[in-house]
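User: Can you model how phosphoenolpyruvate sits in this protein?
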Amino acid sequence: MIGRSRLNIGKRSLSDAELQEEINRLERSLVQTRHQILEVQRRVSEGMGAAEGSIFDAHLLVLEDRTLLDEVIRLIQTQKINAEYAFHSVAERYATTLAAIEDDYLRERATDMRDVTARVLNNLLGLEEEVDLRRLKEPCIIISHDLTPSNTAQLDKHHVLGFGTDVGSRTSHTAIMARSLRIPAVVGLKDASARLETGQYALLDGYNGLIILNPTDQTLFEYGQLIKKQVSLEEKLRDIHLKPAVTLDGQQVFLSANIESPNDAAAVREAGAEGVGLFRTEYLFINRDLPPSEEQQYQAYREAAKALKPLPLVIRTLDLGGDKFLAHMPLPRELNPFLGWRAIRFCLQEENIFRAQLRAVLRASAEGNVKMMYPMISGLDELNQANALVERYKAELRAEKIPFDEGMEIGAMIETPSAVIVADSLAKRLKFFSIGTNDLIQYSLAVDRMNEKIAHLYEPTHPAIVRLIKATVEAAHRHKIWVSICGEMASDPVFAALLLGLGVDELSAAPPLVPPMKFMIRRLKLTEAKALAEFALNSESATEILARCQELARQVAPSLFETK
Ligand code: PEP
Ligand code: MG
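Assistant: Here's the modeled complex, given as structure tokens:
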């Protein structure tokens, strides 16, 4: 078991002559910390992907927080005290304030603040990192009060069988990391780290969020059976890898994957997907000191397009803001960032950034089956403005004799209720829709997708969501364009029948979830999917719709649920 020990930070008085050197020492430790974080970020990005690496942007931002740093320096100068004591007292005050706020997102910032503070203090005190999870000697379960993203990034999959933490929620960075690393984890165990002891035997069940101490032979036997079932399911999923996503009664479904980096293109083919339904380009922007140039973006999009060719690659234009920020371009703090300067709104005002991206996408379209879509369109004006810019950049490229695909298809994400309501106007001007249910649910139900307190209200089967999806599909089909879903709903086999029954043409899932989605589709009949959708469209209850979805899913593909 690994706990967080408290550093002993003594207060030392300094003479006037020592003050400047103390500030220099602080600055050196900040630079050293920055290098360490960039190194962890690089390892995580290479090993797990840009999305996970970007988690450390929040840590880098702490080191760039001038208000905090100026306050530390002022304290050293006015109180004539040592840097570690000054840094610790200011940073801890910030962290305590953030931790006390009833908001999961801000509480995570407190964890980030403490993670960075521990590094700075270790560097000032010349200490090794307190917990080195790369040097575990035997297989174990880690139980800790909290496990920071940096700790989690270092977990050695050969030795860490699983981990549990007292604090955290499903949306905490640590939980996100665990999912990417595919390490079983249980978060939010309250006082487990105080109650469990090193050397105890435990069984960790990440599916059901359980830790069983000193499991009996019977329990071990039952879990052994579950593991066997899981292995046999994985074999079944491998068997259908190259087979089409087609229902028992012959309805072909286009099953694609969501990616965050050109490096993920290989995983798309391995997962048995038929293309990329969503390339989240913001991760190209987040993990670096400067925004990527047109040329750098062109290379990235081209690499993905070539790796996938002839399979389609849908590139989404930049969706910054909300919960995704840039270290090199801090956005102004907003009261409601998800309702603020985000996605297409940001791009239409930051024309240089948008121009570089649009030209890069257009150029890459000459090299593969590239399509492009805009995020968070809320009305026709935005669409017209964006399309006008595309026309302008096409004219530039023509004049420069740079090749691009004149017929590159352009679509829009349907993520706001207003976009659904004006879907007919949008459909006339586009080649496809892609429904972003993650945002559509949060904006339609007014439920922040990051907030654990109201997570029970975040209901994908809410009758309003079912009807919004249906309205989008109808508008698209009236204008003979196709509709995809690329939000998390399309990664959950429980919802496959409902979405097919509502008439969606394509589902785009996270690569590890493509095989279970295909497995489910191949066991469904379009007739029963349509009946389920009909039921859902007439229902008044999210719970009732969810229950019907679960019932059908378990009935047609029970092996997908046997380990849960
Ligand atoms: C969505 O909102 O459903 C979506 C796919 O976009 P993101 O999760 O990147 O906001
Ligand atoms: Mg979205």
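A couple of observations from the model: Confidence is low (pLDDT under 50) at residues 1-6. Residues 278, 280, 319, 415, 436-439, 486-487 surround phosphoenolpyruvate (ligand 1) (CB under 6 Å).
User: Helpful, thanks.
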